[in-house]
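Appendix B, record 7
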Amino acid sequence: MSETKKKLIRITTVPLSLDKILDGQLAFMNNHYEVIAISSEKEYLKRCAKNEGVRYKHIEMTRKITPIKDLISLFKLVLFLKKEKPLIIHSHTPKAGIIAMLASKITNIPIRLHTVGGLPLMEEKGSKKKMLECIEKLTYRFSTFVFTNSTGLYNHIIEKKYIAKNKLKVIGNGSSNGVDINYFSASEVSFDEQTKLKSTLGISENDFTFVFVGRIVTDKGINELVEAFDKISLQKKELKLIIVGDQEPELDPLHKSTLQILVKNKNIISVGFQKDIRPYLFISNVLVFPSYREGFPNVIMQAGSMGLPVIATDINGCNEIITHEKNGVLIPKKNCVSLELALLRLCEDKTLYDYLKSNARTMIETRFERKIICKSILDEYKFMEKSL
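Structure tokens (predicted):
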């Protein structure tokens, strides 16, 4: 008779994080534990769980500060944990982190893990920043161990004394999940698919195309990107910018001037959220990612795996994937002039562009292949299990 697998709960605030940040990892872990996925947005969560082949529990959570709703989420999670009695609970994203770590502390879950994939508080000021810092410290205090997905975040957390060094670790070379280099491969997009998509978007063979993939919000540097591209596209008509992702006006709205340019400039092509971003990466020349703050951005690894050079801000995570002038170009954050110059440089300097492109995939597959990251996390689980 086979031994019953111990239970592992993975929890995020919204299922988009399960789907995009942890894609494939739950299925991998399900070979070793009975995995249960917890998140909000029931129908999306249900699809994610089915794709991963795991159980799920819907508990609604918000990304905003909503004390009453948060207490309800906490109460529901406590009841569920008392019923299931998992060995491990592992949270991602800030709201899921504080709710999960507090609920699992209350119910005496043996292994309570949280991964820091970014710190929104880094862009906050005043009383809100202090409140978010307090919540972050409580999340770490209630956990038994904390992972960061980048060395930059690790250093920041230690510098700010949010947690003791012996309770914090970076997995591998960074990242929460690595990248599936077989899935994110240029060979996975057919020529017919490429031709059809270019035709649909109005991109010609002579166009040099930049692409952004992510949330269309101020924090991601969209205002600077749109302003910089708008200026250079007046000089160079053969340039295109594809923007992949949805706006979040209720959480982090764009500037009014940015919204006006998005409507006016016909060389900026907004395609909204796309489940499969590979075709858009494939028809582009350069990924542009001018974010203000990151943990360890998956899209930079995905673009690199597809053979794209990257223009990114010199911040945590980005500068651990991109080596300046080797597989991309690093620029200061919130700096429209530097971004404008970088855009011009990569479309005009073919020698540099070809060199960056030649290094792009190799520098990803040798450091961030998904199987290596998943195995490293599993090794951490097993080590902690033995230490109980």
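Remarks on this record: The chain has a mean pLDDT of 95. Residues 67-84 form the longest helix (18 residues).
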